[in-house]
Every structure is written in C-alpha cells, then in structure tokens.
Amino acid sequence: MTHSTRPFRKYVVSAALVTSIAFTPLVGTSVSAQSNAPSDNTATQVQSNLLTQGDRGQAVSSLQSELSQQGYYTYSVDGIYGPITKNAVMSFQADQGLAVDGIAGPRTKAALGSGSAATASSQTEPVAVDTSASAGNSEIVAAAENLLGIPYQYGGTTRAALDSSGFINETFEQVGVDVSRTHAGIWANNGTHVSSPSVGDVVFFEGTYDTAGPSHSGIYIGDNQMIHAGSGGVEVSNMGIDYWQNHYIGAKSIQ
C-alpha cells in the first residue's frame, strides 16, 4: 500500500503545478492589457489636442483669432498653421513663461483662453498696416506657405520640384496672377517698385549666380523673413544675414 500511494501523491502535486503554470501567463496578459488601455487612449486624446505647423482648419482659425485679439498675430485669419502662426505662438509662449516650441498644446491654449496675458499691442508701438492691400498680400503669403518643403531642382516649374523663379511663378499662379518666368523678367515687367517691402511683396537679389541683374527672389513674410526656393528646397530664410543684405536690390508689390 505504501508503494501504491506515493506515485499518486506525486501526480497530484505535478498536476497542481501544471495548472498554476498554465493559468499564470493568461491572467498576467489580461491584467497588463487592461492596465495599458487607458494610457493609450489618453495619449491619443492629448495628441489630438496639439496644433502644429502644417495643420489646417477651423481649430487653426480659432487659434489665430485668439492670438490676434492679444496682439500676437496681425495677419489675415486663414486657418493655415504656417511659419507666421508658429512665430506668433512662440512669442506668446515666451511672454507667458511656457515652453517655447511653437506647438499650441493644452497649456498654451489655456493661457490664451484665460485672457490673462498682457497684449503685445500694449507693450509695443502700433505698426501701421495698409489694410487695402493686406487681404491680397495675405493670400500671396498663404500661397507661398503651401509650397514649403518642395525640393529644389534647377528648371523646376511644378510641385514635384521648383527652382527659385519657378517658386515665384507657382505662388502667383495660385492667386491668379501671371508673372514672367525669370527673376530679371519679373523685376522689369511685373508689379510696382516699393521703397521697402511689405508682407506679400517680392524681394529681389542680384549676384547670387554668375550673371548680371536680378538672379533670385522670394516672398516677404515680415520680420526680415522670406519664403524662397533655396538649395534645400522651399524654405523660410532670414534676410537679415549678411549674405542676403549684401545682394539685396529692392522689392516689388505684385497684385
């Protein structure tokens, strides 16, 4: 009898261990999945509340309106989160002591909505704006922003790739204005010369290539910034650097 019961006991213990081992991973996986589910949903909700450069729509229009009310955005509300809107957000964030990243997240939106921010207009001298031309010029800037990121290619005239004058042509084609194909042609034939550029005007440069006369141009977007097709593609550049200042020859308003 002694010999017959020992194997039976070993079998019972072995079965209990197998049962425990078999169920442990299943229970662990279920608990892990349940604990991860809320954090995934939360991450999705937070991400959907962010507005960044490249976004479009009513949410961007609302953001621009709030920035405008507090004096940080002085252009047409167009629902396009371009470099101008990003710069306005960054200026607001800096004044509010927020992380300056140009992304309108929950904290930035909350600060805007609180109305507690001091308006930029109360801190700086008012800037004279030609409202009769601002609507048309803002359309030109929006058209230029639409082309940001398109690669550069010499002779390029389509959205697949653009050269510097091809970028100007494509920008004005979007707003229904025909301009000459070359920088020299635009300088000679299109628009009106102005003493200093306003937002949406075309700024011209010479001597950027081994050729006489105007050889490059861009769309002025304010604060010494322009959108143009450089070697890295359509991008925003600072006209205040020595290179552009040394080659600058003037600006034209083209409507």
From TrEMBL:
<dbReference type="InterPro" id="IPR051202">
    <property type="entry name" value="Peptidase_C40"/>
</dbReference>
<dbReference type="InterPro" id="IPR002477">
    <property type="entry name" value="Peptidoglycan-bd-like"/>
</dbReference>
<dbReference type="InterPro" id="IPR036366">
    <property type="entry name" value="PGBDSf"/>
</dbReference>
<feature type="domain" description="NlpC/P60">
    <location>
        <begin position="134"/>
        <end position="255"/>
    </location>
</feature>
<dbReference type="Pfam" id="PF00877">
    <property type="entry name" value="NLPC_P60"/>
</dbReference>
<dbReference type="GO" id="GO:0006508">
    <property type="term" value="P:proteolysis"/>
</dbReference>
<dbReference type="InterPro" id="IPR000064">
    <property type="entry name" value="NLP_P60_dom"/>
</dbReference>
<comment type="similarity">
    <text>Belongs to the peptidase C40 family.</text>
</comment>
<keyword id="KW-0378">Hydrolase</keyword>
<keyword id="KW-0788">Thiol protease</keyword>
<dbReference type="Pfam" id="PF01471">
    <property type="entry name" value="PG_binding_1"/>
</dbReference>
<dbReference type="InterPro" id="IPR036365">
    <property type="entry name" value="PGBD-like_sf"/>
</dbReference>
<dbReference type="InterPro" id="IPR038765">
    <property type="entry name" value="Papain-like_cys_pep_sf"/>
</dbReference>
<protein>
    <submittedName>
        <fullName>Cell wall-associated hydrolase, NlpC family</fullName>
    </submittedName>
</protein>
<dbReference type="GO" id="GO:0008234">
    <property type="term" value="F:cysteine-type peptidase activity"/>
</dbReference>
<keyword id="KW-0645">Protease</keyword>
